[in-house]
Amino acid sequence: MERKLPTLGFIGTGTLTSALVTGFCTRASETPYPIVLSPRSRDNAARLKAAWPDRITVAESMQEVVDRSDWVMLAVLPKAGEEVCASLRFRPEQKVVNFMSDKALPQIREWIGPTAALVHMVPLTFNAFCDGPIVLSPPNAEAAEIFGRIGQVVQLEERYHAAVLAAITGCVAPFFTLLDALSQWSAAQGVPPDLAARYVSGFFGAVCQEAAHLDGAGLSRMAGTATPGGINFLVKDLLTQQGGFQMWADAMEPALERLTANIPRPEK
Ligand SMILES: NC(=O)c1ccc[n+]([C@@H]2O[C@H](COP(=O)([O-])OP(=O)(O)OC[C@H]3O[C@@H](n4cnc5c(N)ncnc54)[C@H](OP(=O)(O)O)[C@@H]3O)[C@@H](O)[C@H]2O)c1
Question: Is residue 91 part of a domain?
Answer without folding.
Answer: yes
